[in-house]
Fold these 4 entries.
Entry 1:
Amino acid sequence: MSDLLKRIAKISGPKGLITGADVRQRPADWMGQTQCNALAIVRPASTQELSQIMKICHALGQPVVAAGGLTGLVQGTSASADEIVISFERMAGIESIDPVGRTITVQTGAPMQKVQEAAEKQGLMFAVDLGARGSATIGGNIATNAGGNQVIRYGMMREHVLGVEVVLADGTVVSSMNTLLKNNTGYDLKQLFIGSEGTLGLVTRAVLRLAPRPKSDNTAMVAVSDFAALTDLFRHVSDNLGGSLTSFEVMWKEHYELVAVESGRHTPPLDAGEAFYVIIEVTGNDADIDTELFTRVLEQAIEAELISDAAIASSRSQRDAIWNIREDIEALGMALMPAAIFDISLPIRKMEVYVDRLRSSVHEAWGDEARLIIFGHLGDGNLHVVVSARPWSDEARQQAEKMVYEPLADIGGAVSAEHGIGLEKRDYLHLSRSKEEMALMRSLKTTLDPKSILNPGKIFAA
Ligand SMILES: Cc1cc2nc3c(=O)[nH]c(=O)nc-3n(C[C@H](O)[C@H](O)[C@H](O)COP(=O)(O)OP(=O)(O)OC[C@H]3O[C@@H](n4cnc5c(N)ncnc54)[C@H](O)[C@@H]3O)c2cc1C
């Protein structure tokens, strides 16, 4: 064992350090398809331990890569053989809940679902929710400014973080565990770390906002025959559901057909053949009134011919069956991999033309063998795009990246809506950010991490 690792072992103890062949036993991604090749995995048990470890790493210029649940999809946790992975799995506790102030204080290795369940026990809700909830950690959610299925109503992670504790590159602990909703005392330092993908600091603890837990929910899957009807439907439900719209998730035809029908893994709630399938969900406080309003608003949409078919969930299992189609990433993986997966933002009104052009580019390049799958949080202007080209190669991936990213610059889109930049989108960041913005980002990085030891090479080239 090297001197560096011996010094770390003295601080972390045997439970806190994984080395040699044991590192290779660990996965490097959430599906377990690649192995971890890092120099070591360090698993601190407290902020103080991590601070001491970072003092050593800083003195020696040792690069480290923070890792949560490994569900990020942009190679943000990818670590080379000379880098140390900092895993937060031994810092996964719920420290306290304040049901009156509606806050929860957690260690950042806590999985999202654990936080959601702790809030539920107090009749409250942690309102950020996404498909990888069982594995994704609060630290990863903060570092990626995660979005998810309820952004349209509750906002992204940034809106739910009140305070953070961070270990800086040199081991300094900045404890900014604010619990107040209003606190305008100088710079809002936590914002530096939210969405910074482990490149500016290691987030060890957080104070999160909780919301009142809704007492009712109503969910439907509806079919829509064209894009104009889709945008009219979005306006109709947004305007008429009295602020209770929580999700407006759209699957383009090809997505619904593949997952709901072809995969054989679901009972399709609606016949295939329409252009779009939408999950509409509302939450509220009075089951009778909410259900009546929801049904009325959908009936109006049917009368106005915005909806051509609808399935309204009348039980928890029917609701889950609808969401299981949207969240069945495994079905997509089995049918489409290898493929390039994208997470982009663009103005809703530009989506139809953008997607038509993309479809033409994909089919021009690879013919009918290629598959283009589109789905996402349309209400947030956020689409997930999968390009499955055949034959697959690195060149095909790069070609797909150019097709997806380059047109975004002219229409005010963003190359990442919620997954971040990591390694995967680094070469395309300039399409969404000006030279001046990039220069300011670099200068923040240099100020906070002058030796570039925190997740080097992610977001920017090292
Ligand atoms: C099935 C599935 C569905 C998904 N759906 C959504 C969705 O709807 N919305 C969405 O936004 N994302 C979604 N994601 C992506 C992913 O779940 C989120 O990005 C999540 O926030 C990552 O959390 P994690 O703990 O897995 O982070 P990781 O993947 O482990 O890490 C992500 C980044 O955060 C950094 N990091 C991790 N922990 C810390 C820490 N404590 N301090 C500093 N940096 C840290 C890492 O270095 C890395 O750069 C989905 C992923 C999957 C697999």
Note: The pocket of flavin-adenine dinucleotide is lined by residues 30, 65-73, 76-77, 88, 108, 130-132, 136-137, 139-141, 143-144, 146-148, 197-198, 202-203, 329, 418-419, 422, 455, 458 (CB under 6 Å).
Entry 2:
Amino acid sequence: MAIKIDKKITGYNVVKPEDKVAAPTVAAAAPKEAPTAEVIQMHESVERPETLVGSTFKIKSPLFEHALYVTINDIVLNAGTKYEQRRPFEIFINSKNMDHFQWIVALTRILSAVFRKGGDVTFIVEELKAVFDPRGGYFKAGGIYMPSIVAEIGAVIEQHMKNIGLIHDPEMDEATRKLIAEKRAAYEALGAKKNSEMSASAAPADAASADTLTFPAGSMMCDKCNTKALVLMDNCQTCLNCGYSKCG
Ligand SMILES: [Zn+2]
């Protein structure tokens, strides 16, 4: 780096190796101080950087002939500081299916506008997930009920917000978790006894689905968490997903 000297040089010092070592520590300390002066929050006039990072989710629904591709791009505010925050900035939805084009464009524009307004934007997840299709919803893999395609877009946004740390899963207390594990083990032991009398053909399917979140075949719908995970044990319905039980 060139430094222009306007005054007369009246003296000089030679830079010693130990000075060079000392210098970077001063430089490193300086940026730590700087961000405390101004923490950038999301608001309408935050300009879109040239490049944004994001994720694309694929939605395959029996209500739609073609898959939907949902892209959510994020802005990183206060990068490199302790105030660093990643927030959704814009959303795009693409599909070969043009039947719903105008609604999808309108929805994505409004969602993007909400993202850029700032403040708490997580409320839109619940708003979208509560949309019911009068023609009926459908089940996702794992037995999760989707009341509409809009609700699934909401679920995708929720997943994305969880991925970037904007939404945190509610802490399930240790007792509930243990209870679910115990109930599940008991139910599976019960099922294994029955299955062994019939055939072993179900075994490979069980092994394949072990890594994805699935619940026993024939589970009923839980009204509390909208998942097919309700099983009947000792004349009592228990949800193996959220722990809900009719018998308390
Ligand atoms: Zn449940």
Note: Strands lie at 53-59, 68-77, 85-95, 138-139, 145-146, 220-222, 227-233, 236-239.
Entry 3:
Amino acid sequence: MRAVEIAAHGGPEVLRFVERPVPEPKAGEVRIALRAAGMNHLDCWVRRGVEGHRFPLPIVPGCDGAGVVDALGAEATGVAVGDRVAIAPGFSCGHCRHCAAGEQQLCRHYGIFGETCDGTDADFICVPVANLLPMPAGMDFVAAAAAPLVFLTAWHMVVARCGVKAGDDVLVHAAGSGVSMAAIQIARMLGARVITTAGSDDKVARGLELGAEVGINYKTQDFLAEIRGLTGKRGVDVVVDHVGGENIGRSIRALAKGGRVVTCGATAGPELQADLRLIFFKNLAILGSTMGGLGEMHEVWGHVCAGRLKPVVGAVLPLAEVARGHELLENRAVFGKVVLET
Ligand SMILES: [Zn+2]
């Protein structure tokens, strides 16, 4: 089969096409003939490498995928050859206390396809039956492959970590990113007033289309001043941040008393500079979030299947153009998801 492989970290030029044997499903697994692979910023981290972290090279990147079940391993029940499925991107030991509690992302053996083991940028992948997300008849493979990781990430941030409810003011940074596209819709669905930021008027307008009530162009407007104006100096209840860097210190200053900022990434830098006095006087919380539990995955997938939450796809490329996909993501040149067709 064809597969994209990263054998050494570096720029997009390290992405190589290789021939690999078609994988055989183990007990409890199925093999999926992939039709689409959704790209995430995680793909870029895996390609570039992360200081202090060792990835199992060579690796096939790609956390999200959708396709047709092609072969069943022993004990693979409740699924048939020919079923159309998307893939839940996380897996875990299945029997520790965190797994038993449905908090698989806290399992010490938690892993993600395309990061911990081979992923979806290939013709085939084998995954446990527990990772299958059935696709409804009207859903296409590109949309299915665009949804799981970002909607799970955003759901865990907005619902589990921050407990967003009707009437809350929620600031979601960087509307054009996959996680933000999902977070805007989820917070809106829950009845919050969503304020979003983006780096161009065009992206701001797209954020409003997704359900944000107010959009701020952070290149021409000071988001902190805008938030103060919009909330009568009160501040927002929740900030969804995956930008990090200087942005997060300002996000903390945008919070109302009792507010929470939740972070799932640090594309602008990993260091946090914040005034502790603000944090204790205003009873603030800084929350970390990565992925989410399998139950949450099914819950948010149900909303995607019902059309209440919609993956936004900014670019569809053939698998052969994976390097261009990485460039689009790194340059923030698309609004929403980049999906590879396999
Ligand atoms: Zn476990």
Note: The mean pLDDT is 96.
Entry 4:
Amino acid sequence: MKHGIYYSYWEHEWSAKFGPHIEKVAKLGFDVIEVAAHHINDYSDAELAAIRQSAIDNNIILTAGIGPSKSKNLASADASVRAAGKAFFEKTLTNVAKLDIKTIGGALHSYWPVDYSQPVDKEGDRARGVEGIHGISDFANNLGINLCIEVLNRFENHVLNTAAEGVAFVKDVGKPNVKVMLDTFHMNIEEDSFGDAIRTAGPLLGHFHTGESNRRVPGKGRIPWHEIGLALREINYQGTVVMEPFVKTGGTIGSDIRVWRDLTDGADEAKMDEDARNSLAFSRFVLGG
Ligand SMILES: [Mn+2]
């Protein structure tokens, strides 16, 4: 099991450059940094090569996260949007591969955050999502990339809210590089049992996000980490565990994530680093790896 952190912990904008965070994350003791793929097509090949070299130099594995915008939704009812989504993913995956990234996770099958001012067509969005993911899966596989379909809570997406729904979706896609992704923040809202959800995903679990119910770093709240660790051991999970804390107000991240109060008690960067380091030690102990 490899442990990581999403670099947006230290940022206010999704478009913030992730390269400068690699060395810091390595110094904090992490194995993995998760980066945002939304804007990776804006990076030059030279920038991507420098980032890849920095990851090698710091012995850090990169994973990618993405919540596609509405205009790139692979499950849109509008065929031209679906086509734009496919083109976007092919370009994005090509650039993601330049960083030796083997795992991309998020609402790949849909878009984020969902616009609930419009009528919801769960059945149609799901069917088009299966087709859309199926349609990019071989392209990703040829680049050595696993597509990890993140199960989100009801307030952020309607297509997949539980591990059981995620497993059924991934089985319908039926490709070996398409996996289920779970996140304790979302599970806390939707699942009856953390352990049962993880066991339901079983061998199809491809990526795992952690965070407390208020998105603080693991260890500061009331998520049942011991139960989660037992379940991960039970399914012999060997993949990546990436903490995804969002604790500061401000910027597009603060607004999109609905962070309306400082969840760090006024921590400066040094204290935030210390919180991440302590949470990593906690996560390695209780979850394994
Ligand atoms: Mn997540």
Note: The longest helix spans residues 122-142.
